Amino acid sequence: MKHSPLAKKLPRWAEIDDLLAPPSISMEQCSSEKAALYKKQVISQLFPKGGDKMTDLTGGFGVDFSTLSQLFEHGTYVEQNEDLCRIARHNFPLLGIKSVDVINGVAEEILPTLPPQDLIYLDPARRSDVGRKVLLVEDCTPNAAELMPSLLEKAKHIMIKLSPMLDITRAMQSLGPAAEVHIVAVGGECKELLLLYPCEKDSTKIICHDDRYDFSFDANAESRAAVKYTDEVKTFLYEPGTAVLKAGAFRLMSERFGLEKLHPNSHLYTAEHLVEDFPGRVFRVHTVSGFGKREIRPLLAATKQANLAVRNFPGTVAELRKRFKLRDGGEDYWFATTLYNERHVIIATQKVVDCQ
Predict the structure, then answer these.
(1) Model confidence pLDDT, tens digit, residues 240-254
(2) 2.30.29.80, 3.30.565.10, 3.30.160.270, 3.40.50.150: which CATH number matches 6-201?
(3) Are 314 and 344 spatial neighbours (Cβ–Cβ below 8 Å)?
(4) What CATH number is given for 223-354 in this structure?
(5) Is 274 left (phi over 0), alpha (psi -120 to 50) or beta?
């Protein structure tokens, strides 16, 4: 399987010649190797000396289970699909996973039979009975909201993986306040939303993680943060990473890094100083142009190719490319956006720091 689709998502697994691959739908929902290792890092902080028992109630292809179970003396893999259980029994010894029980059953029935656990992990299936994708906690299988009272009684810690498309506030309305919410991005794309329980504090800690940055804050801090707005684009332009945008840390970007926000809805920031550890991308500004023919003519004459993005702007990338006759790619980055004074502009830049 060294040259299979498995190789990109799970390169270490793909090196094992006799490993069995799952159906495509299970492969689609399973964690990547990077995302699974991040979960292991999070859980290892809860059990620095290792734990006794853990259970994955939604085993699937077993990527998360095989990674997390390494932190515990014994692991239990639960999966309702008999074929996936057969694959797991075959693959776990090849992966060096020992002291494990593989149980073919549904989470709702197996959970009451489990002894007390140090960790219970769930990755509810995000497809309906007719194969349609679903997002809400209540629409997934199993329904983690219904299981939550039993989970809290059975386990010291609970980790639930949800769709990265799900609103964080909506998720906690269904499940209750989480101790931590981890937004996991890989290569600049949000892949997972992880909620840790139980919550024993008054506020939730939000952790934004990408390959190149970690940014964390108290959920209550965003509303209290002081933000400065400007309609003047300065030397550097800052674009937060996708995990930060998902977290909604819009005011905190201004307060934490001493930046000015271009507009309440643009989520672009500017400053004269360079922030090298900014959790996102940083650009050096070359030109700020309005959209009048005379204003924009020098910019179009000088540049025939650029990476174009639209942020809080009444138009699409395709429409602007056609209008400007602009090819995609190259080293120039253009942002069509709206300033604090409601002026529409093109900000022409080149990338300085890329943390996405």
Answers:
(1) 999 999 999 999 999
(2) 3.40.50.150
(3) yes
(4) 3.30.2130
(5) beta
